[in-house]
């Protein structure tokens, strides 16, 4: 049996976001509601972009929102949203239409989760396939 990478309750499609900060907030809120992170972790993710630039935009159309492991993360988790209208992060890979949020309790699980995500992202056209999903169940099936 395969392990579930992202729970259905932590997936949303066609989300409205005014800008990149809002997009990170929307993805982060799913993990707040799931009890995996405290709201301050969302602030840590947006602060990271303000400080380090749009490094989270890993490939055209896709951002992996995350911050350093901290006490704001109660339990490791991942959420995934697709955006109704793409947003710009100020990256050469803009505009972003898919945002994944990664929260880890420690550096070891952080690296393991990043490796799993990287494997998934290597699939041809995966961002387009995620963006094309019309329901969260469809996106859940694609990602898990």
Describe this structure in words.
The chain has a single domain (8-143), classed as Mannitol-specific EII, Chain A (3-Layer(aba) Sandwich), CATH 3.40.930.10. The radius of gyration is 14 Å and the shape is globular. It starts with 10 loop residues before the first strand and ends with a helix. Helix 1 (20-33) packs antiparallel against helix 2. The chain is built from five helices and five strands; from the N terminus they run βααββββααα. A hairpin with a 2-residue loop joins strand 2 and strand 3. The protein has helices at 20-33, 40-52, 107-121, 126-132, 136-143, and strands at 11-15, 57-59, 62-66, 77-87, 96-103.
Short overview:
The protein has 144 residues and is an alpha/beta fold. It has 5 helices and 5 strands. It has a 5-stranded mixed sheet, sandwiched between helices.
Extended strand count: 5
Oligomer status: single chain
Annotated CATH architecture: 3-Layer(aba) Sandwich
Total of DSSP H or I helical runs spanning 4+ residues: 5
- Indicate how many domains the architecture comprises: 1
Low-pLDDT stretches are none
Shape: globular
- Beta content: 15-25%
Strand order of the largest sheet: 1-4-5-3-2
Radius of gyration: 14 Å
Write the layout of secondary structure elements.
Blueprint: E1 11-15, H1 20-33, H2 40-52, E2 57-59, E3 62-66, E4 77-87, E5 96-103, H3 107-121, H4 126-132, H5 136-143
Parallel strand pairs: 1-4, 3-5
Antiparallel strand pairs: 2-3, 4-5
């Amino acid at each position: 049996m395969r392990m579930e990478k992202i729970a259905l309750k932590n997936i949303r499609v066609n989300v409205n976001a005014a800008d990149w900060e809002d997009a990170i907030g929307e993805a982060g809120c799913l993990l707040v509601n799931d009890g995996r992170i405290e709201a301050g972790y969302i602030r840590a993710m947006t602060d990271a972009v303000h400080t380090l630039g749009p490094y989270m935009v890993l490939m055209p159309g896709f951002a992996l929102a995350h911050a350093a492991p901290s006490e704001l993360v109660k339990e490791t988790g991942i959420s995934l949203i697709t955006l109704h209208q793409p947003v710009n992060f100020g990256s050469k890979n803009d505009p972003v239409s898919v945002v994944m949020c990664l929260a880890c309790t420690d550096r070891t699980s952080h690296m393991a989760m990043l490796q799993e995500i990287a494997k998934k992202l290597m699939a041809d056209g995966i961002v387009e396939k995620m963006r094309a999903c019309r329901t969260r169940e469809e996106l859940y099936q694609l990602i898990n």
